[in-house]
Design a protein that fits this description.
The protein is α+β, with helices and mostly antiparallel strands and 280 residues long. The chain folds into 2 domains: 2-156, Ribosomal Protein S5, domain 2 (2-Layer Sandwich), CATH 3.30.230; 164-278, Alpha-Beta Plaits, CATH 3.30.70. The chain is built from 10 helices and 11 strands. The strands form 2 sheets. Strands 1, 2, 3, 4, 5, 6 and 8 form a 7-stranded mixed sheet that branches. A 4-stranded antiparallel sheet has the order 9-10-7-11, covered by helices on one side. Strand 1 (2-19) and strand 2 form a beta hairpin. Helix 1 (66-77) packs parallel to helix 2 (100-115). The protein is globular. The two termini are 26 Å apart. The relative contact order is 0.18.
Length: 280
């Protein structure tokens, strides 16, 4: 049996550069893992096939789940005769801009690599992961980094940040594909990545909170005014910085004062899921 933790990620900076021929967008982003995770357990079985269990419904059919698809790929390409039972304990909200599905997919590749002793290097697993989603290669390594291309060309910043962050999650899902399809490049604001990357590399918290940036915010806000209203309300709280993560709807709230974050969490707990955690 193998057990793996699949960590959520935050985008501290996200710029959209243009549409690609493959349908994705070229982006520049700075991503960091947070201490919020799903737990996946992998057990080999004598009977062939994949049995997928989860404590919440993620997809209508198991075959539509990235975890199932990643497992099937490794079984098929490495001629694995055994089957596998996969159990997912979900803590990362679905379709919340936290890469929960990509994280689960990535640790499936990692977990089955260990379970069946395939000895595939992480770099190769990341290449395999590209076919399942742009965030999967990042989730293989699970470290603060700059992402370019469609988010899969990674430059590691090799910094452990340990900054507290409050995650405020509205009770509705946002489709990443739908948000990117709505992007009008003429309306994308521009902000250089250099200052934020320097802030992360130098662990400069004060500079980081002034450089929080997400070019997708206006497009998510146009489709979901409630997300805009939530961010505007959180900006009025006594905190240091607020940003929407990924395509939303999750909002990340920063303060070095943990008691201030606890007070904000208590205020918003009734109508939203709130998680007080930290960047790893």
């Amino acid at each position: 049996m193998v057990k793996e933790k699949a960590y959520a990620k935050l985008n501290l900076y996200l710029d959209v550069l243009g549409k690609r021929p493959d349908g994705y967008h070229n982006i520049e982003t700075i991503m960091a893992p947070i201490n919020l995770f799903d737990t996946l357990t992998f057990k080999a079985t004598d009977e062939p096939g994949i049995r997928l269990q989860s404590d919440i419904e993620i997809t209508e059919k198991p075959e539509e789940n990235l975890v199932f698809q990643a497992a099937q790929h490794l079984i098929d390409t490495h001629n694995i005769e055994q089957g596998v039972e996969i159990t997912i304990e979900k803590n990362i909200p679905v379709a919340a801009g936290l890469a929960g599905g990509s994280a689960d997919c990535a640790v499936t590749l990692l977990g089955l690599n260990k379970l069946f002793k395939l000895k595939i290097p992480d770099e190769e697993l990341a290449k395999i992961g590209e076919q399942f989603g742009a965030d999967v290669p990042y989730c293989i390594f699970n470290r603060a980094c700059i992402g370019r291309g469609k988010g899969d060309e990674l430059v590691f910043l090799n910094r452990s940040l340990k900054w507290p962050v409050l995650i405020v999650i509205p009770d509705w899902a946002v489709s990443t594909r739908e948000i990117y399809q709505s992007v009008d490049m003429k309306k994308v604001p521009r902000k250089k990545i250099t200052t934020m990357s320097n802030a992360i590399y130098n662990r400069n918290y004060e500079l980081m909170v002034t450089e929080l940036y997400n070019a997708l915010e206006p497009f998510t806000f146009a489709k979901f005014p409630e997300v805009k209203a939530l961010k505007e309300a959180l900006l009025k709280e006594p905190v240091d910085g607020v940003i929407m993560s990924g395509s939303g709807p999750t909002i990340a709230v920063f303060s070095r004062d943990k008691k201030a974050l606890e007070a904000v969490a208590e205020k918003y707990r009734e109508n939203h899921r709130v998680i007080l955690t930290k960047i790893k």
